Amino acid sequence: VGNSSVLACSSKSNMTMVTWKISPQDGVLCTMGYRADLNKTDKINCSDSVDWKFRPDQDLALEIQQVGIADEGNYTCEVVATDGNFLETYYLTVLVPPRLILSCDDHGNPVCEAATGKPAAQISWVLESNSTPKEEGHDNGTVTVLSKFTAHGTNVINTTCIVSHPAGNQSKSIVC
Predict the structure, then answer these.
(1) Which neighbouring-strand residues pair with 103?
(2) Is 36 helix (H, G, I), strand (E, B) or coil?
(3) % helix, strand, coil for the chain, step of 5
(4) Mean pLDDT value across residues 144-166
(5) Strands (DSSP E) found in 8-158
(6) Which CATH number covers residue 87?
């Protein structure tokens, strides 16, 4: 999320037309087309953040600037040439790194929160804990995971929460 993404589409000799069909999960179909004989492009229902990477007569790649969760979905490039039609299909998955929040509850127990990540993060503790993480889904597709440290022994002075996520791992330590 927040980065640009470029999806390639292979050019063919004797190409007459190219169409990008974008079906994001929000359901609004976007279509971008290029006709080689007229050197003309057209866009229907596409946001300003979706466009050709360069001029389509030179490169058929699609660029999505500042990718958001709503951009997740199917992206299909169809190249029409004299020797046939050629399809390339992508499924864009948007990763949202969670915010790691580590605090102490009212009883002096460490609480680790991996807030609003996509997909849900995994939480573990450096010292063994019998905590069962709780997940809370949000309307925008992100998930918050909460884990409370419960020590097997007493007198735990310092503990570390580790958040594992495809967008990157994080860790923090706390003394409660």
Answers:
(1) 111
(2) coil
(3) 0, 50, 45
(4) 82
(5) 15-24, 30-35, 40-44, 50-52, 62-64, 73-81, 84-92, 99-104, 110-117, 122-125, 134-137, 143-148
(6) 2.60.40.10
pLDDT digits (tens, 9 = 90+) for 1-33: 888 889 999 888 888 999 999 998 877 899 999
- Taking alpha carbons only, the member of 50, 56, 59 closest to residue 5 is 50
| H/E stretch holding 162 | strand 159-164
Q: Are 9 and 62 in contact (CB under 8 A)?
A: yes
Q: In whole angstroms, what separates CA 13 from the centre of its chain? A: 34
Judge if 112 and 73 occupy the same domain.
no
Phi, psi of 71 (to 5 degrees): -80, -10
What span, in angstroms and rounded, lies between the C-alpha atoms of 32 and 39? 13
Tally of domains in the chain: 2
